[in-house]
Amino acid sequence: MTDRDSTHANPRGAIKDPDEWVTGDEPPTAAQESYLATLSREAGAAAPDGLTKAEAARRIDELQEETGRGQ
């Protein structure tokens, strides 16, 4: 078995654009819905309904920027 050297790994290297997700058209996960509700409340915005998994991920990114949680 080979040990992986994570000291030089790019922490964002495994992150794909939501548009490239195979499951992006599926409904959001329960975790996404919960986090969207929390972020929306903190941002003073209405929690979105009817999003796909990919749309939810993009909205989470936007709300994290607005609320300062994405830092």
Any overview of this molecule?
With 71 residues, the protein is mostly helical. Helix content is 41%, strand content 0%. It is flat and about 35 Å long.
Would you tell me the structural class of the helices and strands?
A: mainly alpha
Please tell me what the overall shape is.
Answer: flat
| SSE order | HH
Question: pLDDT under 50 segments (min length 5)?
Answer: none
Oligomer: single chain
Largest sheet: none
Query: What is the typical, i.e. mean, pLDDT?
Result: 85
Count of alpha/pi helices: 2
Measured by DSSP, the beta-strand proportion falls in: under 5%
**Rg to the nearest angstrom?**
15 Å
Kindly, what is the distance between the CA atoms of the first and last residues, rounded to a whole number of angstroms? 36 Å
The strand count comes to 0
Helix content: 40-55%
What is the topology?
Elements: H1 30-43, H2 53-67
Helix pairs in contact: 1-2
List its salient traits.
mainly alpha, 2 helices, 0% strand, flat
Short description:
The protein has 71 residues and is mainly α. Helices cover 41% and strands 0% of the residues. The protein is built from 2 helices and no strands.
